[in-house]
Amino acid sequence: MHRHDLSAATVAVSAGRPPRVPGSPFNAPLTFASAFIPGGESEYGRHGNPAWDAFETVLGELEGGRALAFSSGTSATAALFELVPAGGAVVAPVHSYNGTLTQLHERARKKQIELRLVDISNTAEVVKAAEGAALVWIETPTNPALEVADIETIAGAASRAGTAVAVDNTFATPLRQKPLDLGADFVVHSASKLLSGHSDVVLGAIVTNSGRAWRALESRRRTLGAIPGAMECWLATRGIRTLHVRLDRAEANARELHKRLRASSLVAESRYPGFGTIIAFEINAGPEAAQKMTEQSSLIVYATSLGGVESTWERRRRWSGEPTTIPEGLVRLSVGIEDVDDLWADIRQSMESVD
Ligand SMILES: *Cc1c(COP(=O)(O)O)cnc(C)c1O
Fold it and tell me: What confidence category does residue 4 fall into, taking pLDDT thresholds of 50, 70 and 90?
C-alpha cells in the first residue's frame, strides 16, 4: 500500500517513525544535543534535530506538503511575513488572531508592508483586495469570530494575480481542511493548540509544497533562530497520534453544546461554523456577567488558549489587543473531550448563577 492511499487517521498514527531496524525504537527518539558529529545531515542544534524531523514528517504528510517547525505559531507567522518584499501589500482578515494583527500593524507602521484588512468571509472583497498584493493571509475559521473563508475561490483568483496565499489552519487542522489541496501556497499552524492537544506545548509550523519557498523559510528559521525545542516537537508528535480521535470527540461535544446553547433562554447568540471544537457565544446577562461566569465555572477552566483535551473558556475582550469589533461579552469556549452532559451542567449552572 502506498502512503498516499492511507487515510488521515492512519497517517496521524504511522508517519514519522524511524525505519524498522531490529532493536531500534519504533517511536522517534527524543534527542537532546546542541551539536552532532560532522558528516551527517546536521552539525548544530539550530540547524536540525531528529525530533523536529518526526513532527515535520507527520504534519507534512497530513497537510500534503513539506513542513518546518518553529518555536511558536507566532514565530512561524513572522517567518512567513519576512518573505513579503519591502513595501508589498498583505491582505488579512480584520478578525485575525490578535498576535497576527499586532505583527501586521507593526510592519505597516514601519512601512515594511501595506496592510489591507478585509472581511475574510466576503470573497468578492478579498479577491478585489488581492489585486497587486504580495500575500493573502487567510485565517478560517477566524479566532474568535468564527468567520469562514472560501479558500479555493480566493486561492484561484490570487494565483492568477501572482499573489501568494497562506492559511492559518490552527482551528480546522488538516483533518477538516487541507488548504494546499485547495490551491493555497502555505499552511501555518499554532501546534500549541489541537495538534499537540494537551495544553503543555508552545510550537508552530509552516507547510508548503514549493521547494523554493521551503528553502527560503528554512533559511529564515536558521538565520533568525526561531527554532523549536526537541521536547516540544516530541510532545506534539505524540499529540498528533491521537488527533483524529480527540477531534471527533471534541467536535461531537461542540455540536451538541452549540445546539443546547442556542435553545437556552439565557443565551443571546451562539456561533459555531459546523466543524471544529470552538464555540463563541454571548449571554443575555451582558459582558460583566459573562466575565463572572467564566471565572467561576467548576469544570471548564477559565484560561486562554484552546484545543486541549480539557474545555476552557474566556471573554476575549478582556485582552486589550482584541479588535473592538469583537463583542464585549463574547465568550470563546474551547470544547474538550469530557462527557458532554457534565460540560452542559457546568455551563448551565455558571450561566444561571450570574443571571
Ligand atoms: C494561538 C494561535 C496563534 C499563535 O500561536 P502561538 O503558538 O501561541 O504563538 C496563531 N493563530 C491562531 C489561530 C491561534 O489560535
Answer: low
Q: Which residues form ligand 1's pocket by a CB distance below 6 Å?
A: 72-74, 97, 99-100, 139, 143, 168, 170-171, 190, 192-193, 202, 204
Pocket test for ligand 1, best of 74, 232, 235, 319 (most atoms within 8 A of CB): 74
Distance CA 254, CA 329 (A): 20
Closest to 276 in 3D by CA, of 122, 143, 77: 143
At 342, list the grid cell.
457534565
The closest residue, in CA terms, to atom 1 on ligand 1 is 190
Mean pLDDT value across residues 288-302:
97
Contact yes or no for 314/302 (Cβ under 8 A): yes
* Residues whose CB falls within 8 Å of the CB of residue 31, separated by 6 or more in sequence, listed in order: 49, 50, 51, 230
Atom of ligand 1 nearest to the CA of 202: 7
Q: Which atom of ligand 1 is nearest to the CA of 307?
A: 15
Ligand 1 atom showing the smallest separation from residue 204 Cα: 7
pLDDT at 3 over 80: no
- Does residue 185 have a pLDDT over 60? yes
CA–CA dist 108, 90 (Å, integer): 9
pLDDT at residue 5, as a whole number = 85
For residue 246, what is its C-alpha cell?
Answer: 480527540
Which ligand 1 atom lies nearest to the CA of residue 305?
1
Residue 332, strand partner residues? 280, 314
Distance (angstroms) between ligand 1 centre and the Cα of 147 equals: 16
What pLDDT was estimated at residue 305?
87
C-alpha closest to that of 90 among 67, 72, 107 = 107
% pLDDT > 90, the chain: 96
Nearest CA to ligand 1 atom 5: 73
SS3 309: coil
Q: Is the pLDDT of residue 41 over 90?
A: no
**pLDDT tens readout for residues 209-249:** 999 999 999 999 999 999 999 999 999 999 999 999 999 99
Choose which residue among 72, 80, 102, 192 to substitute to test ligand 1 binding: the one with the highest number of ligand atoms within 8 A of its C-beta.
192
Mean pLDDT for 77-83 is: 97
